[in-house]
Amino acid sequence: MNSEFTVAVHSLVFLAYLPEHMASSETIARNVSTNPTRIRKIMSFLREQGFVKTKEGVGGGYMLNCDPQKVTLAQIYRAMACGALKPNWNSGDPGQDCLVASNMQSVMDHIFREAEVQYRRCLEQTTICDVLEQVKHCQS
Amino acid sequence: MNSEFTVAVHSLVFLAYLPEHMASSETIARNVSTNPTRIRKIMSFLREQGFVKTKEGVGGGYMLNCDPQKVTLAQIYRAMACGALKPNWNSGDPGQDCLVASNMQSVMDHIFREAEVQYRRCLEQTTICDVLEQVKHCQS
DNA sequence: TTAAACTGTATGCATTAACATAACAGTATT
DNA sequence: AATACTGTTATGTTAATGCATACAGTTTAA
């Protein structure tokens, strides 16, 4: 899995943390430790999905457009990284005669899909606010 | 996640499928659709973990050394790919002042670990034999 | 109306990870 | 001693990932 999901969660938590619930791509990028372009791309996507609003022009930036107590990591995962747990290489080959070789691909597909459902189910337990609280009370 | 887990499962299922429960790296590689070197590396590892035995020399190869009805995909996952679901890029930076930036990394680590536990729990439901049966009765 | 500070988006670059290929030593069989 | 295997390392190639740059479009404000 690439880290767009991580960046999305971090950005939303950061926005929830700020009093104004608003920040520019550069401010977010500094906090996340990445570059503004990457933030803009990811935030654009989060806007399409309704998680944030954007304001262009001077004094613009991104602002929270959802209730951080209601939005779960599963929703963010679904939007950003669905299907990303499965390796992109497939074993076997549907063209071969052997039952194992020819069917393994679809069987493994099914297994990975099921396991990902469980993965998401775990992420359903945690909201953006939960993460924010954990961050605040993290002893480190 | 890379596909070593997939290859390992496929190889074990293939061995369980064969009457002699034995095959060379080249035979397995053909079935899996990859190269013998990769199979040997993965099978070497599976031998260390006790899943297979190897026989060197002429007429040698790999043979099942476990009960395919008892070995679950979770055990194989644990051996081959534990921790592989987490992205290897980390957001934030422990050196920053901001609570969010500095603690996000360890909070996300914890979340990914928990989610992976659920993922593995799903894989516990399926044995090598289960996969073999699914492969045999796959309508495709 | 013009400058400044933003977002949106495209493109190319650099690095790393993933998979393939080749080579060769070690080992068992015949 | 030839053959057919595994074990392991080194090297090549391709794809994924994240970074940097550039520039058009938008809003604000002097």
Automatic annotation (TrEMBL), chains A, B:
SUPFAM superfamilies: Winged helix' DNA-binding domain. GO terms for cellular component: cytosol. Pfam families: Rrf2 (PF02082). InterPro entries: Tscrpt_reg_Rrf2 (IPR000944), WH-like_DNA-bd_sf (IPR036388), WH_DNA-bd_sf (IPR036390). One of its GO terms (molecular function) is DNA-binding transcription factor activity. It comes from the Bacteria. This is Rrf2 family transcriptional regulator. It comes from Paenibacillus hemerocallicola. The lineage of its organism: Bacteria, Bacillati, Bacillota, Bacilli, Bacillales.
